[in-house]
Structures are given as C-alpha cells and as structure tokens.
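Contributing new records

If you add data, match the layout below exactly. Sequence lines come first and carry their own label; structure lines follow with theirs. Keep one chain per record. Anything else will be rejected by the validation script.
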Amino acid sequence: MCEISVYKGEEKLAENVTEFIFEDGKLSFKRLFEPDQVIEKVTHFQWREQDDTLRILN
C-alpha cells in the first residue's frame, strides 16, 4: 500500500493518504484511523505515481 502526499501549490495539505476520490468537484482523502478530509471546488489535479504525490492545480 502506498502513502500519498497531497499538495496545493507548495503547501502540504495531507500525508499518509491511502485513497483519494474525485466526484462532482470534491476531492476526498482517506487515511487510516483519521477522519476523511474533503476539498471542494477542485477542477484540476495531477496524480504522480512515480513519487506518490497528488497536486491540486485549481
């Protein structure tokens, strides 16, 4: 299982994310033993499997 780091610009929003879901402009992050985190009004993001990062672009 990989652990994903989530960034918006240079700011790290979350780490140790095990799953993310994008639906209707909402990006949800799931972490073990933590409540889900939701970011609304997301239109563009980039997932990089090489370094396990998800970057919110807009």
